[in-house]
């Protein structure tokens, strides 16, 4: 075998995707397995439990490495920071029942994964199932490949040719056996499974170990109480998980089995249940509403779909059929970003279908089951991506420190008890007991309590979350990207005017609303037909811009009739007709024959329409710059750019309109988009008013005051975006805008980049620009103090990313406006900001911004839906007011997590120190003493401490993001020292008291109160005898025990109060009424225990009577500890000015990439290079070194990456 197994032992699954994993091949060895089984038996199952927690150890011990081709076990590892392992068994699927001979499997399937996976002659397929997705072994490519999807390599024409007639019965059966049923099946997990999984959690296993130890030490009541609490906790968790499981099951079961019609090759149409569908099946979509049971590519006809389940957008979306493009590009590559215009997604609802001349609406099944868009949403809920690795890693480190701390205590315990001649068994029990005290098993749970309460508070405010781990991330956000239309500005646009163009010149503007409507002509026709509106439930539905445009014509949509079109027979098409209030028109109506829906990438839409009885015409609307480029130059006015700038600079949204006549003979469906959208006649500019939402400016001002950057990422015009950014306060009036323009140099592989100050282009003031040399000093002064903002278009961003990679971080540092950005560019921008160590939020709608919302640390979709696949957060409030709300709650949750963490660490340490002190005298805390501290104090505090809400004002700094940060560690260490000091002081001082006796635990009260008890001396003697008897019974009662226990118990209340931070991230502690009530009640009980002389109570609690003065002394000790602890926490730990001074003194520099880059640019007087042009090859090498890690891939040696 040589090197082969090692060489092919490893590969990557889903390379480059969100769920990318490393995969390793292993082969089971019988002798190793036998040894492991023996180990399981000898360790009483402990080894098996360890392997359950660590599946990689199980594989490494049981198996040997081999190539993936030979493997019967594979080990999977996530490629994120957590590097989580999982173990999967390779299964065999037999297809011999359907393939008797080679002729049974058609030649058309030869290039599909299904034929490449079938092993000859056994006719079996090797498969693994990972997170509900099936992967099969490709014999030729030597790798596991996903099934349940139509392969990406098919061209547009191949999809039409190979799948246009449907699959044969045999092909369908083979695919069904390999892919499995087309269901998103989330079975309700049986209670016993949930129970076992929960019980085997390391937390409960540790509890079990502790309980066994406590029973062995006769802590009966305490152990019983912990069992009861653990069972209650397990029951509540299982109940919650079961409820979630049922909810998810009900959410998906409705789509799992519906009747569908498919086309069978040579067999015609066939009705079957949707769970039988496979990729490649030809689906027939009938008229009327239909729920889609799979993802499918539309290959004939047209559909209108409600995609609100996926995107949160309730506007109906028009889908058009995949063109029959005859080229060698894969269909997805050919369609680029617009491929979604041809795809119908699972879980969405088809509300209208329109057949073309071929008679029926057909779609080829693209993805089935969990591979669909809806399946992806369900999988993201079933297998949430772990977040905040730093917090997890720091918690683990802290836990390790506590374990080391416990180990020291164990050594001390062994030494003390062994030297005093205790039995070995007793010494072992006492030593192990130290671990159960020092390491709080509830520590991980404590970190999540704040998140749970925050999620509930957010839900009340109309913000829904499908990824709770991201809530803490929201507390760290320092940059938020906003979409413009519908997010910063109103969704609805008002028509302001139309600037018509005739004979290469702009005419007088037509204002809306006007007494007289637009005159009949090409412009009127464009407004009437160039849209994707439908009539749904009696109302015109569609894009708000389209609705406003169409309403201005006073025409109506007749969506019901079938129309006879010359040469095409009867077809179902949308007809628009004059309404009652419409101006008189010389036509009965206009038929919309074909649509090319709006494309974010192309920034335009077009339709083919014809007047009833007339010739077909094409109408195009879109971004003015794009539309003008598609028009014949002689039809575009010479002052086009200046007029466009005039209106965009005032914040208007401007749309370009164009048209052309088409030949009558050719059917519309046969025309390509390129043919339709060329040699157009420019009609003019439609000017629309896009008003800011009322909440936009105050929210952006609030974020700015909190030092959170706001960035606009929009598909709209650059100048409009700059004006909106200025009006919204994103760019302050005193700051300058620097336009960054990047262009490819014609006829070469290089590119140019230019920086222009936009200050002179203000339309409001017509002053001529001063001479460059005069303005330069003023400009430089403004620019040097970071009072400048870069603005660029998507095209420039793309060129900068490709040719000026080294400049990109510098541009992003002050980039505020990114316009004409496509959905993929939005995602790329968010990722680039993240590379600079920004914590990025993204707020937009669920459709175009879907990718960016998912990539951001916190994506917030403004939608009426409770949850969508689009983003982790969905806000039902239709404004950006949800952003500061989410940041506030995120900050509060983060601080709460840290407070709980500190408290849990301190509580266990206080108890640990108290026990170690008492071990010095071979003593410990009693049964009820432990019970009181753990249940009556800590559990109740743990539940109520997190109730504190978020502080309403956002401060200009963020809470610490790390557990292992100097202030937090110092706080914990100092409070441990205060606690240790107080307990040792109390422990030593009680022994110095004149009434102290090591043997007689009633000496204090008898000596002080003897004269008061003459009347009951016999009773007193009886009590002494009883006490002495009890002392020999349990050995807990002593003056040291009473002193240390009372001090440590009230000390727990002190740290709970001190650590319950209020301002600046949470509301003051007194607003958490429940917590204050609990603390007051607990303190009252503790003081009652300290001052009450109730014999039965003292006997139960293993306390002894001490003189009143000593009790007062203990109260003074506690008061001093509270004062010192509170003072240190406020004056040192929470003193931001002090920490900033220390940072300055020790010249601490932030590790964040953007901060370091900021520092570099502050020293660079030549940045930004105003009114200068650079070329990619002339600057790449010289500037590269300043970026600290960002390089220009165009000029890197290919050998460096090997």
Automatic annotation (TrEMBL):
Gene3D superfamilies found in the cross-reference section: Calcium-transporting ATPase, cytoplasmic domain N (3.40.1110.10), Calcium-transporting ATPase, cytoplasmic transduction domain A (2.70.150.10), Calcium-transporting ATPase, transmembrane domain (1.20.1110.10), HAD superfamily/HAD-like (3.40.50.1000)
Gene Ontology cellular-component annotations: endoplasmic reticulum membrane; late endosome membrane
InterPro entries xref list: ATPase_P-typ_cation-transptr_N, ATPase_P-typ_cyto_dom_N, ATPase_P-typ_P_site, ATPase_P-typ_TM_dom_sf, ATPase_P-typ_transduc_dom_A_sf, ATPase_P-type_domA, HAD-like_sf, HAD_sf
Translocase keyword on record: yes
Domain of life (superkingdom): Eukaryota
Keywords: ATP-binding, Magnesium, Membrane, Metal-binding, Nucleotide-binding, Translocase, Transmembrane, Transmembrane helix
Chief localization: membrane
E.C. designation(s): 7.2.2.-
Family assignment from sequence similarity: Belongs to the cation transport ATPase (P-type) (TC 3.A.3) family. Type V subfamily.
Name the UniProt record assigns to this protein: Cation-transporting ATPase
Upper lineage: Eukaryota, Metazoa, Chordata, Craniata, Vertebrata
Gene that this polypeptide is encoded by: LOC111933466
């Amino acid at each position: 075998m040589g090197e082969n197994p090692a060489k092919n032992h490893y590969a990557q699954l889903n390379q480059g995707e969100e769920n990318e994993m490393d995969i390793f091949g292993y082969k089971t060895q019988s002798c190793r397995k036998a040894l492991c089984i023996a180990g399981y038996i000898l360790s009483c199952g402990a080894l098996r439990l360890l392997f359950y927690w660590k599946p990689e150890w199980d594989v490494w011990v049981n198996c040997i490495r081999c190539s993936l081709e030979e493997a019967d076990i594979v080990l999977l590892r996530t490629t994120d920071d957590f590097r989580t392992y999982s173990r999967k068994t390779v299964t065999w699927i037999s297809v011999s029942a359907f393939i008797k001979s080679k002729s049974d499997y058609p030649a058309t399937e030869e290039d599909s994964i299904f034929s490449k996976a079938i092993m000859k002659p056994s006719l079996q397929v090797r498969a693994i199932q990972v997170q509900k997705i099936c992967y099969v072994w490709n014999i030729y490519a030597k790798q596991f490949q996903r099934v349940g999807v139509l392969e990406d390599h098919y061209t547009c024409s191949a999809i039409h040719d190979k799948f246009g007639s449907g699959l044969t019965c045999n092909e369908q059966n083979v695919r069904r056996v390999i892919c499995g049923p087309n269901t998103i099946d989330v079975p309700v997990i049986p209670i016993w499974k949930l129970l076992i999984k929960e019980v085997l959690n390391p937390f409960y296993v540790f509890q079990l170990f502790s309980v066994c130890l406590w029973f062995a030490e006769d802590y009966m009541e305490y152990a019983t109480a912990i069992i009861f609490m653990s069972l209650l906790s397990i029951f509540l968790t299982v109940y919650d998980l079961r409820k979630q499981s049922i909810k998810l099951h009900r959410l998906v079961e409705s789509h799992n089995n519906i009747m569908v019609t498919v086309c069978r090759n040579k067999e015609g149409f066939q009705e079957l249940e949707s769970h039988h569908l496979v990729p490649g099946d030809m689906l027939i979509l009938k008229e009327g509403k239909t729920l889609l049971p799979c993802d499918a590519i539309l290959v004939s006809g047209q559909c209108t779909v409600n995609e609100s389940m996926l995107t949160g957008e309730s506007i109906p979306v028009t889908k058009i059929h995949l063109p029959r493009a005859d080229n060698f590009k894969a269909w997805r590559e050919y369609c680029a970003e617009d491929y979604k215009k041809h795809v119908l997604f699972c879980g969405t609802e088809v509300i209208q279908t329109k057949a073309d001349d071929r008679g029926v609406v057909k779609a080829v099944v693209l993805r089935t089951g969990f591979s669909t868009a809806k399946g992806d949403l369900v999988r993201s809920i079933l297998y949430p991506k772990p977040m905040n690795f730093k917090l997890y890693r720091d918690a683990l480190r802290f836990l390790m420190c506590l374990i080391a701390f416990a180990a020291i205590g164990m050594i001390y315990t062994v030494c003390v008890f062994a030297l005093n001649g205790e039995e070995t068994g007793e010494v072992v029990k006492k030593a192990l007991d130290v671990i159960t005290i020092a390491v709080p098993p509830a520590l991980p749970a404590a970190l999540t309590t704040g998140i749970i309460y925050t999620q509930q508070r957010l839900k009340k405010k109309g913000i829904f979350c499908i990824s709770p781990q991201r809530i803490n991330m929201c507390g760290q956000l320092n940059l938020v990207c906003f979409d413009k239309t519908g997010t910063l500005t109103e969704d609805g646009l008002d028509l302001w005017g139309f600037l018509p163009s005739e004979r290469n010149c702009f005419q007088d503007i037509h204002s809306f609303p006007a007494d007289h409507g637009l005159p009949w002509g090409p412009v009127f026709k464009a407004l009437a037909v160039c849209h994707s509106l439908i009539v749904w439930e009696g109302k015109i539905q569609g894009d708000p811009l389209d609705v406003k445009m169409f309403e201005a014509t006073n025409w109506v949509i007749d969506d019901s009739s079938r129309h006879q079109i010359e040469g095409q027979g009867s077809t179902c098409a949308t007809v628009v007709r004059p309404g009652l209030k419409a101006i008189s028109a010389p036509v009965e109506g206009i038929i919309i024959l074909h649509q090319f829906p709006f494309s974010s990438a192309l920034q335009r839409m077009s339709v083919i329409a014809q007047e009833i009885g007339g010739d077909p015409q094409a109408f195009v609307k879109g971004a003015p710059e794009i539309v003008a480029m598609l028009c014949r130059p002689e039809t575009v006015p010479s002052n086009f750019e200046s007029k466009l700038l005039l209106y965009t600079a005032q914040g208007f949204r401007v749309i370009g309109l164009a048209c052309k006549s088409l030949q009558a003979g050719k059917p519309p469906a046969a025309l390509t988009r390129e043919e339709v959208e060329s040699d157009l006649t420019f009609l003019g500019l439609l000017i629309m008013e896009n008003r800011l939402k009322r909440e936009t400016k105050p929210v952006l001002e609030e974020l700015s005051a909190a030092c959170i950057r706001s960035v606009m990422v929009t598909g709209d015009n650059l100048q409009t975006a700059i004006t909106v950014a200025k009006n919204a306060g994103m760019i302050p009036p005193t700051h300058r805008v620097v336009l960054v323009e990047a262009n490819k140099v014609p006829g070469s592989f290089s590119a140019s980049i230019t920086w222009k100050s936009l200050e002179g282009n203000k339309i409001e003031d017509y002053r001529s620009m001063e001479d460059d040399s005069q303005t330069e000093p003023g400009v430089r002064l403004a620019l040097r103090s970071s009072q400048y903002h870069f603005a660029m278009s998507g095209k420039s961003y793309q060129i900068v990313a490709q040719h000026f990679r080294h400049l990109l971080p510098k541009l992003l540092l002050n980039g505020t406006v990114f316009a004409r950005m496509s959905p993929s560019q939005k995602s790329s921008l968010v990722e680039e900001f993240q590379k600079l160590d920004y914590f990025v939020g993204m707020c937009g709608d669920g459709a175009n911004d879907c990718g960016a919302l998912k990539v951001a640390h916190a994506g917030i979709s403004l939608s009426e839906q409770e949850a969508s696949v689009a983003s982790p957060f969905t806000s039902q409030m239709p404004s950006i007011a949800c952003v500061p709300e989410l940041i506030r709650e995120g900050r509060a949750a983060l601080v709460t997590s840290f407070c709980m963490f500190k408290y849990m660490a301190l509580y266990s340490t206080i108890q640990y120190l108290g026990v170690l002190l008492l071990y010095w005298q071979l003593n410990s805390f009693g049964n009820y003493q432990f019970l009181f501290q753990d249940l009556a104090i800590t559990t109740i505090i743990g539940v109520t401490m997190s109730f504190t809400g978020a502080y309403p004002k956002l401060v200009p700094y963020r809470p610490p993001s790390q557990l292992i940060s100097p202030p937090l560690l110092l706080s914990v260490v100092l409070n441990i020292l205060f606690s240790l000091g107080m307990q040792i002081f109390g422990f030593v001082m009680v022994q110095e008291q004149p009434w102290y006796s090591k043997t007689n635990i009633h000496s204090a009260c008898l000596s002080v109160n003897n004269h008061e008890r003459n009347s009951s001396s016999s009773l007193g003697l009886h009590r002494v005898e009883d006490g002495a008897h009890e002392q020999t019974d349990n050995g807990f009662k002593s003056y040291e025990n009473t002193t240390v226990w009372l001090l440590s118990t009230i000390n727990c209340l002190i740290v709970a109060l001190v650590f319950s931070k209020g301002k600046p991230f949470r509301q003051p502690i007194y607003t958490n009424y429940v917590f204050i009530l609990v603390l007051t009640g607990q303190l009252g009980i503790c003081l009652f225990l300290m001052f009450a002389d109730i014999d039965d109570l003292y006997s139960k609690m293993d306390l002894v009577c001490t003189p009143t003065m000593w009790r007062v002394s203990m109260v003074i000790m506690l008061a001093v500890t509270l004062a010192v602890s509170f003072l240190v926490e406020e004056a040192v730990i929470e003193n931001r000015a002090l920490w900033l001074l220390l940072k300055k003194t020790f010249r601490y520099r932030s590790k964040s990439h953007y901060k370091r880059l900021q520092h570099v640019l502050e020293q660079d007087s030549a940045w930004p290079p105003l009114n200068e042009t650079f070329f990619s090859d002339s600057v790449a090498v010289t500037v590269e070194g300043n970026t600290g890690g960002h390089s220009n891939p165009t000029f890197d040696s290919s050998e460096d990456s090997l």
